[in-house]
Amino acid sequence: MKRKLSVHLYVGAFVITSLIFIIGFALGSWNQEKIYSEIGNEVVFLQERMRDIELLLVTENTDYFCDLYDEKLPNLNKDSYFLWEKLEYMESERGFSDPELKKQYFELELRDFILTKKAKEKCDLDINIILYFYNNVECRDCKKQGFEITKVRSTAESENISLRLYTFDGGMNDSAVVKTLLNEFEIVEYPSTVLIKEDIEIIKGYHSNSEIYKKIKGN
Amino acid sequence: MLMVESVLNTMTYLSAFILTYFSVFLILVYFDKKEYIQTYKGKKVWEPTVSVVIPCYNEEKEIGKCIQSVLNSNYPKEKLQIIVVDDCSKDNSFQEAKKYESKGVIVCQTPKNTGCAAGSKNYGVKLATGEILGFLDSDSFVEPDTLRKMLPFFEERDVGSVTPSVRILNPKNIMEQFQCIEYEVVIFLRRLLMAIDAVYVTPGPFSLFTREAFEETGGFDESSITEDHEIALSIQSKGYKIKSTFDANVHTIPPNTIPLWIMQRTRWLRGGVYNRWKYKYLINLSKWGDFGFMALTLDMILIIPIMMLLITPILRFLLYDHWMERIGLLSVFYSVDALWYIGFAISVISILWLYNVWSTMKNYAPKYKISWYIWPSYLFVYGISMSYVWLFVIWKEITRQKKGWDTR
Fold first, then answer.
1. Which residue from B40, B29, B6 is spatially nearest to B245, judged by alpha carbons?
2. From CA B246, how far away is CA B161, in angstroms rounded?
3. Residue B7 C-alpha, separation from nearest chain A C-alpha, in angstroms
4. Per-residue pLDDT, B374
5. Does residue B306 sit in the same domain as residue B285?
6. Which residue among B25, B288, B335 places its CB closest to the CB of A9?
7. Given CB 3.0 to 4.6 Å as the disulfide criterion, which of A4, B52, B91, B331 pairs with B60?
8. According to the model, what pLDDT value does residue B62 have?
9. E strand spans, B103-211
10. pLDDT (tens digit, 9 = 90+) per residue, A88-144?
């Protein structure tokens, strides 16, 4: 005896399920785009704050420079770093990336970095600087290293050690900022961490947060 | 890492799709055959001779109540034969059953322990004379009108078996309450399957068979640990249909601890795999239609996506998830993607579905006392925990553990 196959129900179920998925994907993508545009707004906001830095640059040779630096920069660096974490999360976990936004962000970082370096010399500040170079495509340990770098940052903060952290995606060859820094520090492999204290040390490959932190403290 | 990520993602989406597909399919069956599902009771007024075989193993506490429940049936005594088969119990089950011989109950013992319910049932059938054969677990109890409510379902000539509404007797602890909801859902599900002639289990606690259909199958398969499932597949594959009732109640005692529950479910799943392998030819959908599809896939394929949906987040967490430490709760908000919305849709469907089942079943079921927290736990914990039983199935297969009664 041949049994009945309710084809209309199977097809109907397939159509409805597909619809649920299509709507789900549309909502999911809308949500991810919304998040990314919010991050974009944050970058714009930070750029506005960068104008303050530019003001500092103008007044660089005045007596107010060091006071202004102290007042403006540390908070911007903190916010900027958190922004990088968010950009990274969206890129490495959600596969969502906007190269233009990243370029803007790295430009922001470079300006912050240059200013900090100048302040370090001019105001005789005991600031440790870390430039962290990663690559989201060709690097196995970068994700792990990013986690360690974050830990270094939070340890330094909890121990009141002055640390400025700047991160750059070495895979972004079309970014003039990134290219310049890669050349300047001769970065050819990832992850690479440039530690600037009194002198410059380049740490290649993966290192734990305690190893890096030891180098910062100098023991 | 990226490859592992994309494999996990693909599997998660695929699993979610299968899960949603089956849920939607069953809902469509319901709306397509709503009236039949909700109202069909059979009309045939019929009083055939009925033999009820009660297999028994180490059930000295319940066997008496079980026999008495059949004796209390409002069915002509001269047309009702009760046969108790003791499978060489280690307790006093046999002696307890013997007390009912004076009331016309036939009590016998297998020459040696058969090691499974199927062996005892087949042994009992040899003594049965009824046109209709019933098999009642010794820890289950029929209501006085159960038989009378089931028999009209045999009105169509090709109906080979009728299943009752197996319900939990006085659910008290959490495990019993979970199973109480589960059993109600299963009764409902079986009605849906009946509407497309795809019932693939005749419940062990109690089921009726026509002698003709039973004999054509050759009786219960003694090599199967879930003979109630095997015989249903056999009956359907011989061209018979299986009907299911809403209100012919049979009450059973469920496993009330987690280890007992795991033992029972491991046996069900393990037996299910063996039986489906035996009847793998049913996959020819052009011949076996809805029955073939449902019999081979439902609760087999379905268990895989449930397990996948449970395993992938755990794997992700163990392998990579350090974002909570880096960006805090933002990692949760930022991860809201398609799967979250699809998961939300599945949850809403499940809640509405459970509400529909329960509001239908309350017309037929006793008034259970279910604690409020059992409902969400049933949906989001109990259902999913079933998939973990597969780990025990795999373990039992690897260690080649013997199949047996696996009851209390």
1. B40
2. 15
3. 14
4. 93
5. no
6. B25
7. B91
8. 93
9. 106-109, 132-136, 140-142, 159-168, 206-210
10. 777 777 676 778 888 888 888 888 888 888 888 888 888 899 999 998 777 888 888
Tell me whether residues A24 and B288 touch, CB distance under 8 A: no
What the block records as the tokens of B230 is: 């095997």
CB A48 within 8 A of CB A54: no
Interface check B281 vs A, CB under 8 A: no
| E strand map for A67-179 | 128-134, 163-169
| pLDDT at position B257 | 94
Q: Are residues B274 and B196 in the same domain?
A: yes
Question: Cβ of A93 and B323 within 8 Å?
Answer: yes
Task: Characterize B221-259 residue by residue with b for buried, 16 or more Cβ atoms within 10 angstroms of its Cβ, and e for exposed.
Answer: bbebbbbbbbbbbbbbbeebbbbbbbbbbbbbbbbbeee
**Residues 73-132 (B) with a CB less than 8 A from some CB of A:** none
d(C-alpha B170, C-alpha B148), whole Å: 23
Report the residue of A7, A20, A25, A148 to disrupt the B interface, i.e. the one with the largest count of B CBs within 10 Å. A20
Residue B385 lies in a domain: no
Give the list of residues 6+ apart from residue B129 with CB closer than 8 angstroms, or none.
Answer: B49, B51, B81
Strand order in the sheet with A163-169: A163-169, A128-134, A192-196, A200-204
The answer to whether the bond into A191 is cis (omega within 30° of 0) is yes
> Which residue of A3, A25, A89 is in closest CB contact with B288?
A3
Q: Judge whether B244 lies within some domain.
A: yes
Distance from CA of B295 to the nearest CA of A (A): 13
Q: Name the minimum distance, in Å, from the CA of A60 to any CA of chain B.
A: 34
B343 is in which domain, residue-wise? 2-32+302-368
Whether A24 sits inside 8 A of B196 (CB atoms) is no
Could you tell me the residue ranges of all domains in chain A?
17-217
Tokens of B369: 């006392």
Please, which residues have CB within 8 angstroms of residue B19's CB and are 6 or more apart in sequence?
B302, B305, B306, B309, B346
Using a CB–CB cut-off of 8 Å, the residues of A that contact B are 1-6, 9-10, 12-14, 16-17, 20-21, 23-25, 27-29, 31-32, 35, 82, 85-86, 89-90, 93-94, 140, 143, 147, 150
Residue of A nearest to B330 (CA): A86
Chain A residue with CA closest to B27: the answer is A13
- Tokens standing for A161? 């050690």
**Nearest CA among B146, B136, B163 for reference residue B244:** B163
Task: Look at B1 and A143 and tell me if their CB atoms are within 8 Å.
Answer: yes
* B199 and B324 within one domain: no
Q: What is the pLDDT of residue B297?
A: 86
- CATH code of A17-217, in short, is 3.40.30.10
Q: What ipTM does the predicted assembly reach?
A: 0.85
Query: How far is C-alpha B47 from the chain's CA centre?
Result: 28
Residue B53 near residue B134 (C-beta atoms within 8 A): yes
Most confident of A35-49, A71-85, B19-33: B19-33
Maximum Cα interatomic distance, chain A, rounded to a whole number of Å:
99
> A153: distance to nearest CA of chain B, Å?
11
pLDDT class of B339 with cuts at 50, 70, 90 = confident
Phi, psi angle pair for B22, to nearest 5°: -65, -40
